[in-house]
Amino acid sequence: MADEKWESAFPVLCKTSSADIGNVCHAVAESFCQDDVISADAFLSTWTLEEWWQVRSVLTDIMRSAVGKGWSKEKISEELGSLDEPYKKVLIDVINVHEASLRKKLLLDTTAVSHAVLSDFDWKLQLAMSSDKLAQLQELLVQLDLDVREAGGDRKRVILEMDKSELGRLISSLEACGKSVQQMTTS
């Protein structure tokens, strides 16, 4: 059931003992969670540089998949296919230890897709008395001013003018987004 890329890396992974693989897995998990680069020097006695890159890439991929897809211990074991049982156990234990940090990092990576962040907002209620088509309109409008900070630090002001039905749709959409974010952070 294991991914072909994973299967091809298992013999390379098994060049070290199951006891030592725990240290490797912890180092990979911590570097992933902290956006840190692991020095390959500590592992070049076991693997060549290309093998180390393969091991690091596959371990990161396994951890991302297991936590991102919410796999149980049994599912992780099944997905690891032909990997020897002691290695599976170590990998499952490391994923369980770092699960909260891995989940947080995956959520941060997912939310960073946009790179634009709401920094401030203001709203005003206006009464439109008439328009170019109607002499007496008397419609309530909400003007929503959003200050958005871009990835480079630039600020941009977005101004939305909405009637009651448009405001209702916006509020419903934001509530749905809030529920989705809450479900992602609690699972």
From TrEMBL:
Origin: domain of life: Eukaryota
Protein's organism: Aplysia californica
InterPro entries given in the database record: COMM, COMMD4/6/7/8, COMMD8_HN
A Pfam family that the UniProt record links to this protein: COMMD8_HN
Gene name, Swiss-Prot/TrEMBL: LOC101858946
COMM domain sequence ranges: 117-185
Name of protein: COMM domain-containing protein 8
PROSITE patterns the UniProt entry points to: COMM (PS51269)
